[in-house]
Amino acid sequence: MKRILFAIYDKFSHDQRALETIKSLSNIGEVTVVSYDKVDNWDKIKFIVSDNGKRNYLQFKKSLKKTYKKLKPDIVFLHDNYAAFFINWLRKKKENVIIGYDSSELYYDKYDISIRGLKSLILNIQEKKYISQTDFVFAANLERAKIMKDVFHLKKCPIVWDNVHRIDDNINKKECDKKFGNIVSNSQNIIFYCGGIHHNRGTFELIEAVKELGNKYKLVIAGTASKEELKEYKKVLNGSSIKNFTYIGFVSRSELKYFLKKSKISVSIFDLSCINHIFCASGKIYESIFEGVPILTSTNPPFTRLCNEYGIGVSTDDYISGIKKIMNNYDEYVNNTKKLIKMLDYDNRIDKLTNLILNEIKHNQRG
């Protein structure tokens, strides 16, 4: 049985993409995960927790090298640019190991003028410099894969593994009705947005659009908000004669599912400030689709492609016309979400990823 080392410097226990990868790798061999995080009661997986669970990058690097020397794995799978340094470490030592790499984020073009920004720049440089030395690479959508091939000088286009997420958590309907029933109890058409209250996520523009559409609609906003933006939101709320919008803060995944089931439209908006946002690989879109809810999105190319190719929603910066278009053809959009659900074949998703990785291992096998 193959020995597999998976490295991730992130709190991955709630990262659906990372968990899918680990599950798929466990179908191939014995998996050891090096991180500062772990998943409890996962019998098939061995976790090496660096620095007793503290977020300490230096200790993570030391732990990864030490584990590699002890394990002597056949396959090393690295997640995002925090682990990119290890590509160079392995190749310098001329280790005869297959290296896979998953790029779930794409921040090579953005960093701040600060200590944190300098650290990000170093990580981005490492990724850009070393990723071409891997045996195979995964990207989070088609647009990113094409960009990565050119920017990172890869021999072939990365394998596309979209962030297709479904909320499988059970809803406690009685509890949710008690907690949120007053928000969704009337006959208004619920428009649900879980991007929080942020200027760069279009929240205030969306509020103004729904206000203009009138009390036939109600905007429910979930997610985070800074003190300043929350203060601005309350100012908008208090100064408005139409109050068909509300902010509910953070919600659990089961509560998120509850609201999606109560909604007519789900909204996904990202700014165009950097490559990672422009070519966003949002799993929230698919969470909406699996509940049969059409989507209203910003004009990020992956969103536009999904809406145009599958007819599951409208990609526009004119939120009023987008909402009207969806509502005027509502049954058609709902039916298209159902068609896409069948095409995605979600229940066989882990097997698909397992086969993709196995195929790459086969083609990169060394004697």
Architecture overview:
This protein has 367 residues and is α/β, with parallel strands linked by helices. It has 15 helices and 13 strands. The chain has a seven-stranded parallel sheet with strand order 3-2-1-4-5-6-7, sandwiched between helices. Strand 5, helix 4 (115-130) and strand 6 (136-139) form a beta-alpha-beta unit. It is elongated.
Structure summarized in a few sentences:
By secondary structure, the protein is α/β, with parallel strands linked by helices. The protein has 15 helices and 13 strands.
Keywords:
13 strands; 367 residues; alpha/beta; 15 helices; elongated; 6-stranded parallel β-sheet; 7-stranded parallel β-sheet
Topology of this structure?
Blueprint: E1 2-8, H1 16-26, E2 29-35, E3 45-49, H2 57-71, E4 75-79, H3 85-92, E5 98-103, H4 115-130, E6 136-139, H5 142-151, E7 159-160, H6 173-184, E8 189-193, H7 203-213, E9 217-222, H8 227-238, E10 245-249, H9 253-262, E11 265-268, H10 275-278, H11 283-289, E12 295-297, H12 301-310, E13 313-315, H13 319-328, H14 330-344, H15 349-363
Parallel strand pairs: 1-2, 1-4, 2-3, 4-5, 5-6, 6-7, 8-9, 8-11, 9-10, 11-12, 12-13
Helix pairs in contact: 1-15
Output the structural class: alpha/beta
Q: What portion of residues is helical?
A: 40-55%
Q: How is the biggest beta sheet arranged?
A: 7 strands, parallel
Mean pLDDT across residues: 94
Order of helices and strands: EHEEHEHEHEHEHEHEHEHEHHEHEHHH
Number of helices: 15
Principal-axes shape call: elongated
Rg for CA atoms: 22 Å
Strands, count: 13
Distance between the termini: 16 Å
Runs in which pLDDT lies below 50 for 5 or more consecutive residues are: none
- As a percent range, the share of strand residues is 15-25%
Strand arrangement, largest sheet? 3-2-1-4-5-6-7
